[in-house]
Every structure is written in structure tokens, then in C-alpha cells.
What we know:
Layout lengths: L2 H6 L21 E4 L2 E3 L3 E3 L2 E4 L11 E10 L2 E15 L3 E6 L4 H15 L2
Antiparallel strand pairs: 1-2, 1-5, 3-4, 4-7, 5-6, 6-7
Amino acid sequence: xxxxxxxxxxxxxxxxxxxxxxxxxxxxxxxxxxxxxxxxxxxxxxxxxxxxxxxxxxxxxxxxxxxxxxxxxxxxxxxxxxxxxxxxxxxxxxxxxxxxxxxxxxxxxxxxxxxxxx
Length: 118
């Protein structure tokens, strides 16, 4: 490699970095409600939408569920408490949820950043 390419940063090989790039998640975390696993149509910190949803929840009902996702070689799964905001045939299940414990919240934020490509 010439001294000019060293100064300009050109001709850098990706193998030379030493660190392997993290694999980007292909989708949002899964939601587990009553032993059924759903992939949400929309997911954000504090809320999600599942469409179609065929469970027995109704509007304004509080419920317990689990959020699960794969982080590297480790499967992360933790409990959350949610409330149904809207439930109908066209919207599906729209729910808000309370923040998980700080450890799991950090893991979830890292997963969502990787999923969104940030």
C-alpha cells in the first residue's frame, strides 16, 4: 500500500478492521401473549400493533405478555405489562406497555437500534 493511500484512507480492506460486523435483525421483537407468539406489524418503545390478532383481549384491558428477541447467540425474553388501546378487525391489537426493568430496556433499545440500522 502506498503512503498516499494510507493518508487518504483509500484501499482499506474490511477484513483489516478486526471486528466482525454485527448481524442486523430481520424484524421486530416477538410478542408472546397467552402462549401464542406474534410478530408485530409495528413496534416502538412503549407501544406495538399486532395485525391480525385472534386472541380474547378487549379494549382498555390490562394484560401481561413477554417480549422476545435474538441478540447474537443469546435469546432475550422478559415480562411486561400492557394495556389495550384499540382492538378491532381493521386496526388489530394496538397496545401500550410500561417500561421493562432497566437491564432489559437497554437490551431492547440496542436491538431496536440494530434493527432500524442506527
